[in-house]
From TrEMBL:
Transmembrane segments: none annotated. The keyword Nucleotide-binding applies. Pfam families: ABC_tran. This is Putative ABC transport system ATP-binding protein. One of its GO terms (molecular function) is ATP binding. SUPFAM superfamilies: P-loop containing nucleoside triphosphate hydrolases.
Length: 234
């Protein structure tokens, strides 16, 4: 089913003559188990759409839901808690906590969340194994390569078993081969673990790993292209 949904969402920046509509009446839903790439020229509204879906930015008009619950109108504390427990984030710049070791970084979303749910050690072990992070657990982010740091970011994004993972140019700071590995991981994990992965990218090669490619132009959806699973694997 649909995990993340924007309905008739618009986002305006500025007032009067300086008004700009970053998003205009956008309706789009994202399903479980699907890896979607959002593409489009610079300034077309990609970041704004991702921020609105993640509750990081409030739309001027419209509705945004996560697993059927409305996010628009919730206060910052409630949104922060929902992000920590139901969403994962992977950014171009890794955003790891420099003073924490790798294991602490992976556990951070759980340590910070208010909910007292028991930590799933087996799931953590699976992520560490799948992402090849075992040798680095006691090290600091600065001791790792960019590709290794992005793998830590992926583990951290998934540790709370989020409904949706947002990836903002996740390969932007990686070499080609490492970027491919990270994309392959996101794609496999979305399918096997039934996550919805939403990735913003301007890189067509990165987008080729997605099951669906959505194009934005001037704050509107200009194309929405589903792709066959066969095309994703090649
Ligand atoms: P993209 O991610 O596709 O490059 P953005 O979502 O960042 O596009 O921006 C869409 C439009 O909204 C652009 O015209 C941009 O200048 C404008 N915009 C984005 N964020 C802000 C902001 N904080 N203040 C004013 N305008 C903004
Ligand atoms: P990039 O690495 O692609 O430049 P940023 O690191 O600037 O992206 O983050 C993009 C946006 O996401 C920013 O608006 C930032 O406030 C927000 N953000 C960054 N880290 C987190 C996080 N861990 N949880 C929620 N939002 C975050």
């Amino acid at each position: 089913g649909v995990v993340s949904q924007a309905t008739r969402v618009s986002r305006r920046y500025g007032e009067g003559a300086g008004t700009r509509w970053a998003l205009s009446d956008v309706t789009i839903g994202f399903e479980r188990g699907k890896f979607t790439a959002i593409m489009g020229p610079s300034g077309s509204g990609k970041s704004t759409l991702m921020h609105v879906l993640a509750g990081l930015d409030a739309p001027t008009r419209g509705s945004v839901t996560l697993e059927g619950s409305e996010l628009v109108g919730l206060n910052d504390d409630a949104l922060t808690e929902i992000r920590r427990t139901h969403m994962g984030f992977v950014f171009q710049s890794f955003n790891l906590a420099p003073t924490l070791d790798i294991r602490e970084n992976i556990r951070l979303p759980h340590s910070l969340s208010r909910k007292s749910a028991p930590y799933d050690e087996a799931w953590e072990a699976y992520l560490i194994e799948t992402l090849g992070l075992q040798p680095y657990l006691a090290q600091r982010p600065s001791e790792l390569s960019g590709g290794q740091q992005q793998r830590v970011a992926v583990a951290r994004a998934l540790v709370n078993k989020p409904a949706v993972v947002f990836a903002d140019e996740p390969t932007g700071n990686l070499d080609l081969a490492t970027g491919r590995e990270v994309l392959q991981l996101l794609s496999t994990l979305s399918r096997e673990q039934n996550y919805s992965v939403i990735m913003v990218t301007h890189d067509a090669t990165a987008a080729s790993y997605a099951d669906r490619v959505v194009f934005l132009a001037d704050g509107c959806i200009s194309k929405d292209i589903p792709k066959s699973t066969a095309a994703t694997i090649s």
